[in-house]
Amino acid sequence: MTAKALKAVRMVAQAAAGSPGEEVPRRVCAAVRDGLGVDGVTLSLLTDTPSRQLLAASDDAALLLEEIQFTVLEGPCISAARTGEPVAVDDLRQDRARWPLFGAMAREKLPGVGSVYALPLFFGDYVLGSVDLLATRPRALGEDALEQASHVADAVTAALVPTREMLLTGNDAPAWEPEQVVRAHWFDTWRAVGALAARRRISPEDALALMRAEAFRTGRSLPDITTDILRDRPRRP
Asked: 219: buried, middle or exposed (CB in 10 Å: 19+, 13-18, 0-12)?
């Protein structure tokens, strides 16, 4: 492990040590960002949809990156969770082939982002989730640096495992920070999926597909669609 990766691993461990459970994701996000020298970080559990939960986003751009991937159901973090392999988008402005919907929306809404990297978070043989790294410059991490970042992802898993039951059990909103962001962007979405499925007498998967299609068609965010459904407004879908 390089000195930089070792320093980042230590920063992650220190960020989690002795912290209240609800503060761990936010502090770990900041430690990964500062330790690896990237511009934004997100943490998600069970990232392979539909069982997905945002834990923390370091800033608005990182949050929007996750929201785009969740809306169009494709992108680097979803691929990392499905394959268990790191995913590199070295130049977001030029990478147009792998995920056309994600790429088009990301270039439109995140013009200041140059590169994105997604690392799976392993718990044994199981992919617990993923960590996304974004940078304003293209090619922010070379091949060796990305390999070293995987050691940091292992440290993130170690930091999250003791508190994951706060999220995975019960029906209450997860006790993560910032609570309003988590509730608005993910927890309330699943409430809306259930409401729409019951209203239309369709499966939750079909309900979520309708919500995504409406968000993509109108250019509105999935949280906006969610709010309409939970308020029972007579709008599509």
From this structure: exposed
Backbone angles phi, psi at 50, to 5 degrees: -90, -5
The Cα 124–Cα 105 span in angstroms is: 34
Residues 11 and 127: their CA atoms lie apart, in Å, by 23
Q: Is the pLDDT of residue 139 over 80?
A: yes
The three state secondary structure string of 19-58 is CCHHHHHHHHHHHHHHHHCCCEEEEEECCCCCCCEEEEEC
List CB contacts of 130: < 8 A, sequence separation 6 or more: 43, 44, 47, 77, 80, 81, 118, 119, 120, 121
The verdict on pTM exceeding 0.90 is: no
Instruction: With CA atoms as reference, report the closest residue to 76 among 128, 120, 14.
Output: 120
Query: Within its chain, how far is the Cα of 199 from the centroid?
Result: 29
pLDDT in tens, 178-235: 566 666 666 677 788 888 888 888 988 888 888 888 887 887 877 788 888 888 754 4
- Which helix (H) or strand (E) segment is 61 a member of? helix 60-72
Counted residue by residue, the chain has a size of 237
Contacts of 165 (CB under 8 A, 6+ apart): none
Rounded-to-integer distance, Cα 131 and Cα 56, Å: 10
